[in-house]
Amino acid sequence: MASPHQKQTMKDRILQTADRxxxxxxxxxxxxxxxxxxxxxxxxxxxxxxPSKDALIAAYLEHRFVQPKPSDRSPVEQxxxxxxxxxxxxxxxxxxxxxxxxxxxxxxxxDKSVKDIAVxxxxxxxxxxxxxxxxxxxxxPDRLATQLQLLVDGSIAQDLVRDDPAMARAAKEAARVLLExxxxxxxxxxxxxx
Amino acid sequence: MASPHQKQTMKDRILQTADRxxxxxxxxxxxxxxxxxxxxxxxxxxxxxxPSKDALIAAYLEHRFVQPKPSDRSPVEQxxxxxxxxxxxxxxxxxxxxxxxxxxxxxxxxDKSVKDIAVxxxxxxxxxxxxxxxxxxxxxPDRLATQLQLLVDGSIAQDLVRDDPAMARAAKEAARVLLExxxxxxxxxxxxxx
DNA sequence: GCCAAGGTACACAGGTCTGTGTAACTAAAA
DNA sequence: TTTTAGTTACACAGACCTGTGTACCTTGGC
Lengths: 194, 194
Hints:
Two copies of one chain form a homodimer.
Chain A: H1 10-25, H2 32-39, H3 43-49, H4 53-64, H5 75-91, H6 99-107, H7 112-136, H8 141-162, H9 166-181
Chain A binds a DNA duplex through residues 10, 31-33, 41-45, 47-48, 52-53.
């Protein structure tokens, strides 16, 4: 973990492959046989590293729970840049929506642990927006952060079914309107730095 | 179909039960045995009415594709009322997100017909917004309709993971800001008719 | 050389799933 | 009464799933 040159462990390879297949094809659609076959290991080895498929699913979701990198850009640029990043990801052919929302949709309210991590993820994203809005001094950062997160999740859901990266642009424009309405000065209607 | 007093056919009962279980528990999570057992019929009878589970899934999604009732309220009230209706549905304990988004998330891009009907549904909803925005004479009804639909889908996704009907209120407030920004006069910040 | 850790091959238990085949039953229509 | 359409009970095929048991093999460290 410390050294980037460190050889990838077996556990890493299993998790990485499970991550890719679970995300692309769905958690229920992928069996442990498929994962081990894809890596070229025996199913026994997989079970030596993860006690059950449920444990592998939990590891998958935790693995997806990554914090955004710190940035030295201005709060407004960071907020609006979120939607540019979304648009880029929508364009990739291996994008298939939000893994947490998908997992909840797929596994239902049955599995409480899945829902818990999904809620934690969504809340962490909302708080990320909120921190930047506080920095900007807007009146009601909590409310606006929630609304920005609505635009993020809405564009993800829309792109999931429509495969249309323009959804991210529409969300960005809406976000700009909401920011300006909250008294935030936003430079130009489209990409001043371009 | 014409008379509301008409006795419910076997096919209706199957579809209705499949609808409820598919939506609540997930399509992959429910087998045809479960559906037939729930109704108290044999699995053979189910297969006499639907040639395959895939056909039943298709019928389920078509059954969910309902058009909004015509309304005599003003366009603005209709648009904002959408979010009030959402909030009501979020409060129900049998609400589990958008069946079309869930189906795409669950069945993946593999099944093209599922994606097709999901796209058709989302587009029909977007056009519903668009029609009302045209009536209001806004400058760019297509863009704003897309953005309102983003708020709808965003609040649905958020409520799915958080079980928080307040997401609909946040979406409604954002919708009001977007409408006002487009030059639409919106009466009061919260429920003038209350 | 020897040992121990971890991987492999492979069978298998026990469950679920979709879908079919078949013979008997029921009830309404003719 | 006879026919016919729909339903039932039930077994079963064939596939896939999670998870385990077991005996063998490979490899690096001592």
